[in-house]
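Appendix B. Extra example for self-study. Work through it before the problem class; the solution is given directly after the inputs so you can check yourself.
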Amino acid sequence: MSTSAAEQDGQRDAAAAGVQSVDRALTILEVLARNGEAGVTEVAAELGVHKSTAFRLVATLEAHRLVEQTEDRGKYRLGVGVLRLAGATAARLDVVQEARPVCRQLAAATGETVNITVLSDSSALYLDQVAGTSALQPHNWVGQHIPLHATSNGKVLLSGLDPDALDRLLPKLPSYTPQTITRKAELRAELEQVRDQGYAVAVDELEVGLTAMAAPIRNAGGDVVASISVSGPTFRIEQRTEEIVRLLKEAALEVSLRLGWGHRQVTTPQ
Amino acid sequence: MSTSAAEQDGQRDAAAAGVQSVDRALTILEVLARNGEAGVTEVAAELGVHKSTAFRLVATLEAHRLVEQTEDRGKYRLGVGVLRLAGATAARLDVVQEARPVCRQLAAATGETVNITVLSDSSALYLDQVAGTSALQPHNWVGQHIPLHATSNGKVLLSGLDPDALDRLLPKLPSYTPQTITRKAELRAELEQVRDQGYAVAVDELEVGLTAMAAPIRNAGGDVVASISVSGPTFRIEQRTEEIVRLLKEAALEVSLRLGWGHRQVTTPQ
DNA sequence: GCGGTCGTTGCGTATGCCGCAACCGATTGC
DNA sequence: GCAATCGGTTGCGGCATACGCAACGACCGC
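Solution. C-alpha cells for the complete assembly:
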C-alpha cells in the first residue's frame, strides 16, 4: 500500500488481494493476455511498480514457462505453461471429459467445428473445441468470453435460466451485425422457441457469414449446465440444417445421459 | 529458506526462482494441475510451508479466478481464469510458427528435407518446408494438396481420425506407383501400425525413389493437428531409418509440447 | 557518435510475508 | 452426546525478502 498517491488509475482493485507480489504477478498474466505482448517497462507502468520489480516477477513467471520472451532482448508473452494448466483444467471438468468423444464424432459426422460452452460471468465461456474435417481451424474460441445474446450457445445457456435472470445478466444487448437481436422482447420470444424445440440457431448474428446451432447439455438434476454447438460458414450450414440439428440433438442427449441425466426422476416443475 | 526437511520429493528445483512467494504460488498451480484437487494442508505439505502461508497464496490465486474451491468442504482446484489465459495464448498459436525452429534443426541433423502438413479437404496440405543440406533437392511442396494414402504425412493425419472417417475422405485409393497402397484393408492395418509405433513410413508409394517418414503433432487436447516429415531419395534414407525416426519423433514431441501437449494423469475420483 | 530507451543486475532497507497459535465448523470415535 | 481430530481461516509479531534505487550494456533513431 505504499505510495497511496498512485495518481494514474484509481480504479484498480488493488486491495483485498492477499499476497502482494503474487497478486502483481497474476496481474501481469492478465495484462499479457489482454495485450498479447508487453515489455518490462510497459508492464511496470501498468502495475505502477518499478521496472526492476516487474522484471523479477516476469522472470519468475518465465521460470515456470507461464511467459516467454520473443527474442533474447525482446518483449514477453504468455507461454506454453498456460496451455498445460488449461489442459489439466479442462480434463478436470467432467463436462468436457464426457463430451469430448461425442464432440469428435459430431465433428466428423458434420465436418464442421464443434464447441462446448458454459455460463460464466454473464457470457459464454468456451471450454473445448474440436475442429471439423473441412479445413484448418477457423478460429480457436477456447477460453474466450462471447456475448450470450448473439450466439446459439448463449441462447441455449440463457434458455435454462429463469426469466428474471435475463435482466440481471444482460442489462443491454449490443449489436454486432444487422442480424443481432437487440430487443429484449425479441430475445425472450427466441428463448421460448429454443426451449420448445430443444435447440438454438444463430445466423450472421455475431459475425456475418457465420452460422451456429446449439443444443443444451443437462446434468442429473435436469439443469442446463453446458451447451454444445456446431458452427461454420453460413453457406455450408444453411442447406443441411435438418441433418445437423438431428445429429446435434443426438450428441447433446448422449452427453447429458453420460452426466446422469434421465437416470432418476426429474423433479422439474412444469 | 524454511527447513527443507520435506523428505518426499527432493527433486524440487527450489532455487533460481526469483520471487519466492510467486514461485510458491505457481508451484501450487502445478500441484493442482497434477492432482486435480488439493486442500490447503495438502498443498502446504507439498510446498514445505506452513498451512497459513499456503492459504494466503491460494486465496490470492482465487481472487484472480485461477483456482476455485469446491463448494462442499473447501478443497481447491484450477479455475476458469486459466482457460481465459489459455484462450489468449491459443489465439497466437500457429503450428508453422512454433514448428519452424524445430524443423530447421531437424533438417540440419538429418540433412534431408522437412515438411509440415495438415489435413485439408481430403488431402494433405503442405504448410512449410525446410530444405536439407543435400544438393539433390526435391521440389517445393508448400501449398500442394497431396493424396493422403500415398504419403507418410497423410498416413499420420489419417491415423488421428476415427476409422469411419476414412471411407468418407477416401472413397477410392488411386495408384501412383506399384508400391501405392490401394486396398482399404491394407491401409487400415497400416494406420493401426502408425498409431502403435508413433510414426509412418512411405517408400516409393507416391514417387519411385522417394521415401518419407512422418510423426504426429498434437495440440493441447491431444488431437493430431499436423504432421512433420523427413523425406529424401530412398537410397539415402533407407540406411538410416532408425536414426531418422528417433530425431523425427523427438522433433514432433518438441513441437507438440510447444503447442501445449503436456498431458497429465488425472486422478479424478471414480 | 550521442541521447534516448529498453532489459538486466547489485545492493541496502523497510515492507510485506511467513510461521505461530488460536479459532471455528464439521466429522468421527467411543 | 461429548471429546477428540482434522481441515480451513484469521490476528499478530519478527524477520526474511521483495522492493525501489541507480547504474550498466545493448540497441535504435535522429
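Self-check: Chain A touches chain B through 64 residues (CB under 8 Å). If your reasoning did not lead you there, revisit section 3.
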